[in-house]
Amino acid sequence: MAAISRAIRACAAAGSRRSMASSAKEVAAAGARAAAAVARRGREREEDGRRVQWVFLGCPGVGKGTYASRLSQMLRVPHIATGDLVRDALASPGPFSEQLAEIVNNGKLVSDEIIINLLSKRLEEGAEKGELGFILDGFPRTIRQAEILEGVTDIDLVINLKLREEALLAKCLGRRMCSQCGGNFNVASIDMEGENGGPRMYMPPLLPPPQCESKLITRPDDTEEVVKERLRVYHDLCEPVEDFYRARGKLLEFNLPGGIPESWPKLLQALNLDPGNERSAAA
Ligand SMILES: Nc1ncnc2c1ncn2[C@@H]1O[C@H](COP(=O)(O)OP(=O)(O)O)[C@@H](O)[C@H]1O
Fold it and tell me: Which ipTM did the prediction report?
């Protein structure tokens, strides 16, 4: 991991660029192939001591953090969310955090250089603690970030979570965090007619326990105006990253069918993961 973080910094400095091919066809088949290959490689890696190196993509509010964090516990790898690294940097007062706040609170992306520095530092700290593998959440978000990552390490699988846009906005606006325990909750109750005759989508709220109720805070970038800007930025800058990995046969598209109880077992199935592993991880 230390080698990866050093290489990420070096590549970023060199400003590496490579061309990108995209193919919109056979998405489902490619996703299934990617998942099968991952299951096979996963078994080989466990034997040689290397754990998964996965990436989560998806619009703001889709639930990347929720599913990435559950999978990281199950697969015994760190869940590294670049949004969390940015929020940690924002929490230390000074000119750097003021500059970051201006960008983040307007729904823009921070520069590739800044994010790569934050990520490299996090990977170095992990290497010192002996961490193996990772699930990245919120990185890469630009083609340049994807190229830099590709230049320094192998990504096994990229999971692209998808949800209808109305649900994304409602989920971002309903997001709450407990300022004391750091727990994440969502007060939105989503119940939408199915699209094109499809099934109804129901996502119940994830309410806080009574001791957290009076300590809930909302992210300053979760206002309607800023969420709409973040969605626009996602479509412009981050969607090409989906094409980047699709062209490499690494993208697994997953349409969330509803809330966590409904979606989690289906995600495990799509990933060829045995729910029994979750129980043994929890134990
Ligand atoms: N890989 C990245 N590149 C640039 N900016 C990033 C990256 N990851 C996080 N950020 C910044 O941190 C903010 C919060 O990120 P995150 O918590 O992942 O938000 P979201 O809920 O929009 O997925 C982003 O809006 C962006 O300003």
Answer: 0.97
